[in-house]
Amino acid sequence: MSVAFRRESDDEHLEPKFELPIPAGPNLVTARGLQLIRERRAALEARLKGCTDPDQTTVIQRDLRYWTTREITAELAPTPSGNKVEFGTTVDILLQGKPRTLRIVGDDEADPAEGLVSFNAPLSRAMLGAEPGDLLSFGGAADAIEVLNVEVTSA
């Protein structure tokens, strides 16, 4: 039989398993974000202790490496002034005429559906440093964002 039709094992046909990508740049977090990271790591450690499936153990260990790294590298962001859009502020805006309330948070805490936007997201970057009353360009449109209010968010 030709070597071309022989296979050593089924393992060579499995999808490769990669580490979870760590976002580039600083790992800024809010106090809430740091707490969420710690809770995720603790939950994974608890799951790992009770896990007997080798494949599931591998997945949990990979996730645990990610969250441990995120906890170690976390930098608690300074308390914002509230005078302008900064990390940790809640911002009321009109986005192309539609009202939105967003909170600028760290990468791991971001959940756009809940109004939690990463400080690395294009929308956040467009707003950082803006003050109430400012009109900002976004997505190729001039004056797409109007900053209405900026507040310091507790927790």
Automatic annotation (TrEMBL):
GO molecular function terms noted in the UniProt entry: DNA binding; kinase activity; RNA polymerase binding
InterPro entries the record matches: GreA/GreB_C_sf, Tscrpt_elong_fac_GreA/B_C, Tscrpt_elong_fac_GreA/B_fam
A family per Pfam: GreA_GreB
Keywords: Kinase, Transferase
SUPFAM superfamilies, sorted: FKBP-like
GO biological process entries: DNA-templated transcription elongation; regulation of DNA-templated transcription elongation
Domain of life: Bacteria
Domain Transcription elongation factor GreA/GreB C-terminal: residue ranges: 83-150
Keyword flag tRNA processing: no
Listed name of the protein: Nucleoside-diphosphate kinase
